[in-house]
Known about the structure:
globular, 0% strand, 12 helices, single chain
Amino acid sequence: MDISQIPFYFSEYIMHFDKYIPVVMASYGSLIYFILFMIIFCETGLVVTPFLPGDSLLFACGALSATANSLHFGTLFAICLTAAILGDTSNYWIGEKFGQKLLESHNRLIKPDHVEKAQKFYEKHGPKAIFLCRFVPIVRTFAPFVAGIGTMHYSTFLHYNVIGGLTWVGLFTGAGYFFGNIPFVKENFSHVALGIIIVSVLPIVYEFIKAKTGKE
Length: 216
């Protein structure tokens, strides 16, 4: 393979891995669970990989588990949930131990605007941000990191981490399992995925409106 083609392959096969799951399943069998674990773990646990697929990956896997014998829904759910919770946990501790130093070093792999968005999100919603951010791409990668830098107690973080992970993984894999194999959904998957993302940010919109209207 030409070295110049590496960026293309990375962008096409890793960032859009959800489209190639059937091919990977056919080639590697049960190794798919390990690959999925690593993608979800890195997407939620490493501030340098917020671009990895999350919502669409869970939805696609849920849809495939409805028809593919080699992808068991129960195992899929357990693997993705474990990866999501451990990912946020590792991100919290990275932020707690090294976050301030990483920000002060102006590391080019960590985009300041992403951190700033997560900080504002965290400041606005408090501990609930750990739950709410599960449904917002990129922000969900940086919110645990910011929580680790801040003063959130770990037990509080873990509470919202687990609840958020259960809801996020359950919602998207469940939606994929029950709706992903409907012909219309199959033929318009990209539009459906966009719709899923829009629906997923509704809790954030609700919190924003509530804050603006001053309701408890």
